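Narrative of activities, Objective 1.

The group set out to show that a structural description can be obtained from nothing but a protein's sequence at a throughput compatible with the screening campaign. Below is one input-output pair from the validation batch, recorded exactly as produced.
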Amino acid sequence: MPLFVIATPIGNLGDLTPRAQETLAQADAVVAEDTRHSGQLLAHFGIKKPFVSLPAFDEAQRVPAIVARLVAGESLALVTDAGTPAVSDPGALLVRAAVEAGVPIVPIPGVSAVAAALSVSGFLEGRFHFAGFLPRKAQDRAEMLHELAPLRAQLVFYESPNRLHETLTELRAALGDRPALVARELTKLHEELARGTLGALAEKFSGEVLGEVVIVVSGRDSVAQAQDPAARQQSLEAEVQSRLARGERPKEIAEALALTYGKREVYQLALKLRG
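Output recorded for this entry:
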């Protein structure tokens, strides 16, 4: 009857824990985001199990039937393509429905891209905020970044490789040119840990990028308080000029950069540069 929530490797198959292997072998069936992908994982370890498909696009429709099997007494193992289910992956709806049905939930922890990236960030903030993937709509992204900007904790994001440059550029505009880490292809053959300011990293990853990406941004205070006044002013002027060139109005620019530089200061500078 339990639902086992199992973390799977994010690249290196050697990261699947012995407990996870044992649980997969003993479960009645495996609930998988992609049965073909998870089938290869189980085959690598010599495990043969029937699968139940739970793709993200149809999770809500398939959950009731899966919960019914759990209530009927089956033990099911929930996995996604990589990492921990329900953490920026399918599974949250199933876990909630199982809890509501009185089904025991058993976490089987393992490798985590978030924890792996944080462990090598080198930033000293003891806290972190995991934001996952930023929203697709520009307005929703702006609102989320406005909420995150005041936090002194490290900020952790997932991003697709084809949006990395754009996201780094937006993060710099909303948060200031903070130190950051881009962790690409963690645990895989071409693993890369790129460090620098958000602006420098945006420039570095302006071309084609391959692989899964985690971005770690240091907490607030790393720009406005850490920069000397001349560097700070230069950074602000460059950002305002860039936004004016894109057609943004002084009021919009002031609101977007208010948390990093001060709304009145930005507004007056934007008026001056526009004039």
